[in-house]
């Protein structure tokens, strides 16, 4: 079940398309394909994973930060509202998120899910799988994250989504094609690195994603996307340095600089293979001067600008 899109607010400089901002653009072009935001206000998975709660307020904080961002007249953006999340019912909420994602794909939109904890990712993936868009296609999952999120656990959490996706891909007879950028060695046990190796996961350590390595990072992304037919981008804001993104469920000890993350988002946003994106782990409770919300909004904006005037790939 979803709730209606909230009212958007932001700076107003005057009438006319030359003054257009996100708060003006949302809902301005009904029926026209574009980027469609879906909120998933959940931190159930974060709590199950031992993280600090608060990510359920993430979607609202990202929208508030986006509201005053200037956006060109030709860029179409929609807000599909929030998926209702109640109590500890994570699995039911993920199922509802899947329905919302599939509906937006069916309408020709590029769904952009605003988390929530990284448990968002499994619901996002389920919607893509249900949409039929993956039939006969090889899916690539690109995760910007300090963690692999390949944990085994009795109950799904923010630490398990990509292990769940691996199992679901195997069920549909597909190869699990997953890459992670920004992995923190201290943040992942030897067992997780072993699991990643067994699943054929490609990854770059945070040490190898600093600004002097930006061209290597972009080449890694290009090589990964060249091997797939459809691309799902998942962003965990804890991939960023804690000084740039203090408001997350688990702050980074090193992180990938925002300038590098933005360059990856520019590259991926321009890629016609991109069919789904989400951004997760914004925890406004611990944000300082809205730093994390603002960088989250900048990443959403960057990908949206790249994806402007694109539709779902042919064959859907």
TrEMBL record:
Q: Pathway it acts in?
A: Amino-acid degradation; L-histidine degradation into L-glutamate; L-glutamate from N-formimidoyl-L-glutamate (hydrolase route): step 1/1
Binding of Mn(2+) 2: at which residues? 145, 147, 236, 238
Q: Which GO terms of the molecular function aspect are on file?
A: formimidoylglutamase activity
Tell me which CDD domains the record gives.
Formimidoylglutamase (cd09988)
Q: Which cofactor does it need?
A: Mn(2+)
Reaction(s) this enzyme catalyzes, per UniProt: N-formimidoyl-L-glutamate + H2O = formamide + L-glutamate
Question: Where is the segment annotated Disordered?
Answer: 1-21
Going by the UniProt record, its keywords in alphabetical order are: Histidine metabolism, Hydrolase, Manganese, Metal-binding
Q: What is its EC number?
A: 3.5.3.8
Cofactor mode of binding and number, as noted: Binds 2 manganese ions per subunit.
* PROSITE patterns recorded: ARGINASE_1, ARGINASE_2
Residues recorded as binding Mn(2+) 1, renumbered to this chain, are: 118, 145, 149, 236
SUPFAM superfamilies per record: Arginase/deacetylase
Family per UniProt? Belongs to the arginase family.
Free-text function comment from the UniProt entry: Catalyzes the conversion of N-formimidoyl-L-glutamate to L-glutamate and formamide.
Protein name, per record: Formimidoylglutamase
Q: Which organism is it from?
A: Saccharopolyspora oryzae
Query: Gene name?
Result: hutG
């Amino acid at each position: 079940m979803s709730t209606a899109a909230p009212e958007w607010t932001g700076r107003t400089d005057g009438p006319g398309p030359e003054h257009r901002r996100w708060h003006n653009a949302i809902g301005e072009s009904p029926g026209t394909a574009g980027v469609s935001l879906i909120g998933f206000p959940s931190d159930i998975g974060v709590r199950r994973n031992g993280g600090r709660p608060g990510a359920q307020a993430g979607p609202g904080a990202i929208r508030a930060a986006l509201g005053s961002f200037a956006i060109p007249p030709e860029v179409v953006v929609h807000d599909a509202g929030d998926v209702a999340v109640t109590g500890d019912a994570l699995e039911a909420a993920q199922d509802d998120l899947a329905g919302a994602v599939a509906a937006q794909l069916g309408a020709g939109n590029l769904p952009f899910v605003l988390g929530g904890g990284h448990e968002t990712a499994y619901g996002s993936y389920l919607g893509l799988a249900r949409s039929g868009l993956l039939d006969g296609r090889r899916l690539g999952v690109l995760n910007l994250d300090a963690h692999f999120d390949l944990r085994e656990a009795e109950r799904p959490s923010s630490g398990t989504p990509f292990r769940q996706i691996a199992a679901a891909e195997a069920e549909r007879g597909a190869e699990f094609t997953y890459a992670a950028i920004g992995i923190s060695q201290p943040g992942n046990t030897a067992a997780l690195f072993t699991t990643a190796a067994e699943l054929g996961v490609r990854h770059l350590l945070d040490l190898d994603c600093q600004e002097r390595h930006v061209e290597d990072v972009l080449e890694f992304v290009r090589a990964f996307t060249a091997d797939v037919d459809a691309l799902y981008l998942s962003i965990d804001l804890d991939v960023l340095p804690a000084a740039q993104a203090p408001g997350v469920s688990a702050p980074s000890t090193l992180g990938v600089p925002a300038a590098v993350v933005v360059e990856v988002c520019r590259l991926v946003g321009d890629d016609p293979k991109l069919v789904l994106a989400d951004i997760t782990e914004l925890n406004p409770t611990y944000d300082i001067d809205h730093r994390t919300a603002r960088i989250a909004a900048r990443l959403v904006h960057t990908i949206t600008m790249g994806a402007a005037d694109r539709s779902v790939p042919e064959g859907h």
